[in-house]
User: What shape does this take?
Amino acid sequence: MTISTPVRGRRRIKVPPPLVFVLVLVPFLIEAVGVFWPAFQGISLSFLRWNGIGPATSVGVQNYTDLFSDPIFLTALKNTAIWIVLFGGISFLAGLGVALLFQSERRGVAIYRTALFLPIVFSLVVTALIWGAFFQPNGVLNNVLDAVGLHDWTRVWLGDSDTALYAVIVAALWREIGYVMVLFIAGLKALDPSVQEAARMDGASAWQRFRFVTLPQLRSVTMVVISVLLIDSLRSFDIVWAMTGGGPYHSTELLSTYMFSTAFSSHALGYASAIAVVIFVLAIAVIISYLVRALSEEKES
Amino acid sequence: MTDTLPSRRETLPVPAPRPAVRRGSRRRRAATAGFHTTGILISVAWFLPILIVLITSFRTFDDVAKNGIASIPRTFTFDTYAQAWQQGDLLPALVNSMIVTIPTVVLTLLLAAAAAFGLSRFKIPFRRTILLIMLAGNLLPVQMLLIPVTRITQQIDVYDTLGALIAVQIAFGLGFYTFVLYGFMRSIPHELQEAATLDGAGVGRIFIQVILPLTRPALAALGALSFTWIFNDLLWSITLLQSSEKLPITAAVLSLQGQYVSSWSVIAAATVVAAIPSTIVFLVFQRSFIGGLALGSVK
Assistant: This one.
């Protein structure tokens, strides 16, 4: 290690000291043992029939073929799709909308933003309880409907198969929109304002500036938001579990809640693992695109 | 607009080159009014559920039962809190939450910082692959891990312990934190490290005395964020814990709800208690927290 050697040449030859490998390998091994090893086990469990106590029998792909004739699984799959479209779609649009509205620093904007993202700090259980008070039979919504003379509209929102899923989605949206707004505001602030100004000079309307200037510039943030929302949708569990437990009559069952009750109430571990693998397969496209983006960004800089 | 002018001058530096637009045109004033109306409506809609729960938590059971949750409160009591505190065992639950959250946050950040340091500051073979594999682990759906991790904890006899919960949360969180800290540490100039190396500092000293202090903003942001994540988690605790005296606050409050289905004021009081710690962290670290949310996704 001589001082006179050009820096670049020296670094190429130099082997990092052993301590560096320890610093990297210890966390890597912790993750390997705590995440990757169980994940592989999860896949292999999905080919077994096992209640966790007795002997396990290998059943090949039967768990998977059974899934598609299981009405509860199909309901959970459909509800997960509804969840992605409504929870993901509305979070995206509303989050982008409020970000555009509250992006510039002006009077009052700090309060409006705080109102929107304060719910992020609450747990989904707290969110569920807050909205439980809202949707209960004697809750805020029915009280208000009664007060304005719409008694016929009142119902047991969380106990009615027709409304329960949407009631839970409303609660989940309340917590997610502020998060999406924060992501978009960060993206909007990173944009070069002179491009906007140039478009304005050229006589572009507000909509044109948004559609042809802002939106294309926001592309990479948009991709991140979409990935985050898809992964969040597929992972969603706490809020449904705390508000309805998947009921009534499985009408709010998502793949995640069905997997949980299959595993820990019915003790069908192989079958539950197969559901978990389905969730993984649905998530994999998102994961890969996220990683590809992370890699390309990493190479760029 | 005259009345707002003085304070406005203090807060907003007036952009010099566009005086024509600022000369209070009617359209502009209407737009401002529209903006604030929208803002206030949204804020009220977002604050209202919180406010209702807060108010309900101080009302007696009879008041809520007779007049409904949405009515004007006619009573004021702290009994709801006393009841929730005792029946729900909220104090031990809060302690459990802290026992899990604090070591998890500290150890995850430390381990992730170590990995990020090695990967970002040295030419380790396959470092990019290692980084992406670690990130991929964090993106896996948790559901994949629930059954196998439960089994492993049972086999090594740590099922139903807070230690198991801590270990799992650390392993699962590492990938994301490493990725974010890697991005941050890479932007630290190499000259600093080289100067320290020439001064004879070893890898350990460079990490602790040079790189870690410079990474403080990112560590604060991630720390505030992960505190709320770990503190608020429900799924892992109801998967790995069985004894009710070990449950953290999220799970404890949820089971209290099961016992007091109709007593909304007690549940509301427990909800408020469960929300307080993460709200404090948010208020204290507000800036870092919001920066943290955007970290790792926007560069």
